[in-house]
Amino acid sequence: MDSGQAASGLITLLQILFLDLVLSGDNAAVIAMACRTLPRQDASKAIVLGAAGAIVFRVLLTSIATLLIGIPYLKTVSAFLLIVIAVNLSAAEPGDEDLRIGGNRPRGDIVAAALVIVMADAIMSLDNVVALAAITAGNFWLLVLGLALSIPLLVFGSAAMALLLDRFPALVVFGGLLLGWTAGDLAASDAAYSDWIARQAPALAFVLPMAGAVFVWFQARWIVAERRSSPARPPRQPAPAVPPPRPKKQPPTPRPAPAPALASVATAEDAPTQ
What we know:
mainly alpha; Integral_membrane_YjbE; transmembrane helix; Integral_membrane_TerC; transmembrane
């Protein structure tokens, strides 16, 4: 490899790293919001696991980017899923066992949070992977290297954002608005009607993202208000112990029938005298 090829590869690598970091601001917000209801130690594990899984998914999506982008209504369905994720993450509150995926099992919470991160990142990366595919020009290993280098920065950025959300809970509202806006923008760029929007209704390119952000905010606030106004449920009572089986009653032993009384025979001597 000559110096020209090496310089070209280095420039491409820097482009991948820079583009991925610029486009990963939304993804860092998803990671931070998905982990904010977890204990700090578990949140760190979920961030690392989710970021690594998200990068792997980006590599796979970039490999088939040209096929995915042309599928009609794919972005619309993805936008709907992102809206659902955004509402759930915005309405979640620390210590709320109902919204913590996995119940009281910390390990289940970690895996569930990582799965939410991977799913949301894959949805939000549908547009990003097109730019990455154009930069790499089919060089798979260069793409893998560039995305792998962005993992530490994505992890640290997500951890810092998670600390901010923990210290300033009001930022969760802005995170939900950001995800809702992204979902609306994703729907507006769907291959099924993006050309029609550009020609006939260009205002929808702004209205749909705004509608997505407003819907996420309203729905999340409604869920929180309903939960707080509902009476607190009593703590779950432990299941009663199963009583030991009663011993079966033995049938009563039948008594022997009494012997019939023998008739006394009166003898002449025993007969009363007249």
